[in-house]
Amino acid sequence: MSITATASPSAAASGTGSQLEVIKNGFGANITNMSFADGHGFAVVRHTNLTDETHIELSKRFGELDDVTPYNKAGRAHRLKYNELFDVGNIAHDGSLLDPTSPHAQSNKGNALFHTDSSFNPRRAGLSLLLAHELPPAGTGGNTEFADMRAAYRDLDDDFKALLHERDFVARHSLLHSKKLAAPDFYQGSEPTEYFMSRHKLLQTHERSGRGTIYLAKHIHSLEGVPAEESQAILDRLFAHATQSKYVVNVEWQNVGDMIVWDNTCTMHRATGGEFVTKYRRDMRRTTVHDDSGLAWGLNEKSDERMGLP
Length: 310
Ligand code: OGA
Ligand code: MN
Fold this sequence. Notes:
Strand order of the largest sheet: 3-13-5-15-4
Number of helices: 8
Distance between the termini: 44 Å
Order of helices and strands: HEEEHHEHEEHHEHEEEEHEEEE
Bound molecules: N-oxalylglycine, manganese (II) ion
Number of strands: 15
Helix content: 10-25%
Largest sheet: 5 strands, antiparallel
Structural class: alpha+beta
Shape: globular
């Protein structure tokens, strides 16, 4: 049996694609042209054959895992067997398709906005590993998009970049803020400023690669100490810049068992919607590794508290 994985379309075109050849039912593996030096922002792994158990086992090799206990405490019944698995598909607790008016479906809408995982908690996420358990028919939506925040940082206009460095903004992240942006009617009565906000520098150095990056997400409610209008203008300008198509890759899920691994500290991602949402099952389960870099806690006090919204 052999598995062939292509690193990227451009790598394939230039003949330098990576190949993984599994020997004797997994006893050995030949890996060709897999460059770990580049510090990729995300990696697509096709046909992993992972189960819930091996997905969690693999993820633990990268560090300590986050879990869904804050969401459970906030009143959501967890459908999956393990608390280390975030349930990000469209399937209800009883196995039926999520009713679009249900709290869970309203909450899921936030995933369609560009974000990084857990930036709203005192300790942010490092890697996320998302595994497809059930997929809607091709062409009905449900892809995942990634935005390259190191490239976006590199290409900032010189003046704007200088201003951002000079003022060294602290961004305030809130889970409720992004959820309310995506589902304003449902969250009408909730006010993000009444809840904890996580504080992280907006411009950062991505430790593993040493490159500058923008730690941006629709979880950002505001820039600290900046008048609301100015704060919004700066954030709008950054989003418009960073989500241009030249920085965005749209990844199509092709098979049950496909996995995408991404680094939340130098990318943003979002779920693309589509007609599948109310028609076809999409069962996606994610593990999330706590960041262990020097910027993991941002300017937050170290605490195990996490935001949990049902
Ligand atoms: C996530 C997420 C996107 C998707 O799991 O963190 O944002 O396409 N998922 O399901
Ligand atoms: Mn996410």
